[in-house]
Amino acid sequence: MAYSDLIDDLLKRNPRAAAKLITKVENDFEAAEQIINKIFKYTGNAYILGITGAPGCGKSTLISTLTKLFVDNGKKVGILAVDPTSPLTGGALLGDRIRMKENFSFKDVFIRSMANRGQLGGLARATEDAIKILDAYGCDIIIVETVGVGQSEVDIFKSAQTVAVLLVAGLGDDIQAIKAGIMEITDIFVVNKMDIPGADKKVAEIQQMLELNLNYKYESNNDNEDFTNKYKWAPEIVKVNSKTGENFDIFLDLIHKHQKFIQKKEIFANYQINRIRNETFQILKHKITKKVEGLLRSNSEIDKYIKLVMDKSMDPYSMANLIIKLLGIE
Amino acid sequence: MAYSDLIDDLLKRNPRAAAKLITKVENDFEAAEQIINKIFKYTGNAYILGITGAPGCGKSTLISTLTKLFVDNGKKVGILAVDPTSPLTGGALLGDRIRMKENFSFKDVFIRSMANRGQLGGLARATEDAIKILDAYGCDIIIVETVGVGQSEVDIFKSAQTVAVLLVAGLGDDIQAIKAGIMEITDIFVVNKMDIPGADKKVAEIQQMLELNLNYKYESNNDNEDFTNKYKWAPEIVKVNSKTGENFDIFLDLIHKHQKFIQKKEIFANYQINRIRNETFQILKHKITKKVEGLLRSNSEIDKYIKLVMDKSMDPYSMANLIIKLLGIE
Q1: Of A113, A123, A97, which is closest to residue A285 (Cα–Cα)?
Q2: Which of B135, B288, B291, B322 to probe the A interface (max A CBs under 10 A)?
Q3: Measured at the alpha carbon of residue B134, what is the angle toward residues B132 and B140, in degrees to the nearest 5?
Q4: Euclidean distance between CA atoms A64 and A104, whole angstroms
Q5: Does the global pTM surpass 0.80?
Q6: For residue A279, what are the contacts with CB-CB under 8 A and spacing of at least 6?
Q7: Best mutation target, B151, B302, B311, B321, to test chain A (most A CBs within 10 A)
Q8: Cβ(B119)–Cβ(B27) under 8 Å?
Q9: So what's the pLDDT on residue A96?
Q10: B60-116: per-residue pLDDT in tens?
């Protein structure tokens, strides 16, 4: 059967099989469907850690230092560097990861870059599938790294059990950026480069911001107020020096603390439900988008509508409503 | 009737009405539907010029200089600065536009910033609606400006009749970035800051790249080879100095040349059909996404599926297929 050999090799912890399968799910939606269908039962063991921060905040060094600590503790680590902005940044994130590969052995650390290749909303879906492949492959910890705070990052981090956001003094408006959406998904704020003047001020700024905001991430699905009050996580703040490793013991303790928090039965169910919903939503978005694109290109009824819009006898919103009727999903 | 007064004022060329209506279509999908429905018949007169380029390429100065030339020719200009990356860039593009406002009178030039506020795929839809509002408002030329080359920019530029891409010597990998997707939509390449050493080399690089690539933008809908050969546009290249205005006469000539090209009957029909398809697609994406999101949150059948996925009795792709059946759009 298709992909059976590769999947057998994956389960035997063959890194080349993992790499090949990730390439498949990235480039071929039908292949992704078949592969995930087969490996899904082997997933659910990895701990997924999301890390984000603006370019220049030192993500690369921090992830190296953190990964070394995990490996020293006998953990197998997977790193997915996701760069939705790669045409804008010239792939800086991806280059960093290639350099990082030189520091670790294939056996302990699997590193992979993923960039948007123009698929509509496909990056979150492909990343979720890559996480599952690394999970089945036997990674204990999967670090998912992104550069920004757009909608695609928020979607990607719905799979992460713990999300850490990196900030650094002197980089400017990042507190502003946090407000724009990342706040709702952050569990741990990390002020990197703690030796730079202004690090303590940055910590104070984050504290202030936290006092003004609620933490939305752990709201119950049922909007049950008791649940929300009982299971609220107060985001933690830590300052570190990724070059010297200073305060990484505290950072690791916070990760473990959050790990314990999220493993509470109700919280974990909540996380799982949100993750499954988001995942299914990404898959549905792709399937329905393809369907609609196909319809728009090849349906004679729609050609008639287009003519009416060209003549200004109809506007595009009315056309969209007619197509929804045509699809039968009104 | 709702918005009737604002729309009356818009048609009387009241800039505040234009600003208010754009805010409405940005923030409220239902309002957008009603507004576009009413103003659609007044649109179709503006010439839409898309301009893109990486941060630092001098877009701001170039657009100022160009706008001044248009205004001197008696044209009314609208500028929409679209920044899908605004949390990443800290809104640099938007700040530039605010400064630009000081150079022009409200009567001649309408400037507006649009940033993604996390709506799913909503920026292309909102920008298209804002273009229509400025069109009905009486702008002769609408400049749509973005910072990058991601999927959202490509979607946004499907409304533009002419697309100019700015490059500048010494900014690095921008040729690489072009290959990643902008090539297919560019009509005029502008090498800005022609006084910088390397400008001629940049022109040569673009020429080389053009020789290796085809121009996809004007492919017929029917994939008719005769059409493609007859109506192919060979992208033009011009180097300019936006500070001194040097070579802007050539740049303007190229814009007019392309304007003439695209106004050929078959080409213009092709442009219109693509624009209507894309527009309708953006609206449909929003409507169907909302529908699916609602279903995922409130359907008891889906809660059963989620439990099955949590138990690993089903994978998310299979769940998505069941939901598609549930929606009746298989």
Answers
A1: A123
A2: B288
A3: 110
A4: 9
A5: no
A6: A125, A128, A158, A159, B316
A7: B151
A8: no
A9: 66
A10: 899 999 999 999 999 999 999 887 655 545 555 666 666 777 778 878 999 998 876
What span, in angstroms and rounded, lies between the C-alpha atoms of A22 and A228? 37
Alpha-carbon distance values, B104 to B67, B79, B109 (Å): 9, 12, 6
Cα–Cα distance measured from residue A154 to residue A72, given in angstroms and rounded to the nearest whole number:
31
The answer to whether the CB atoms of B292 and A273 lie below 8 A apart is no
Read off the pLDDT of residues B212-230 as tens digits, 9 standing for 90 and up: 765 556 654 445 556 555 6
B232: helix, coil or strand? coil
Which residues in chain A are contacts of B288 at CB distance < 8 A? 288, 292, 324, 329
**Which residue's entry shows tokens 């990998």?**
B173
Q: Which helix (H) or strand (E) holds A127?
A: helix A122-137
Amino acid in the structure at residue A201: K
Asked whether this complex has an ipTM greater than 0.95, the answer is no
* Average pLDDT score over chain A: 84
Predicted local confidence at residue B109, as pLDDT: 94
Classified by CATH at the fold level, domain B42-264 comes out as Rossmann fold (3.40.50)
- Alpha-carbon gap, residue A208 to A223, rounded angstroms: 26
A325 Cβ contact partners less than 8 Å away, ≥ 6 residues apart: none
Rounded to whole angstroms, the Cα distance separating A116 from B70 reads: 37
pLDDT band at B158 (very low <50, low <70, confident <90, very high): confident
Helix crossing, A4-11 with A29-39: angle to 10°? 50
Q: Do A312 and B36 touch (CB under 8 A)?
A: no
Q: Which class would CATH give A4-266? A: alpha beta
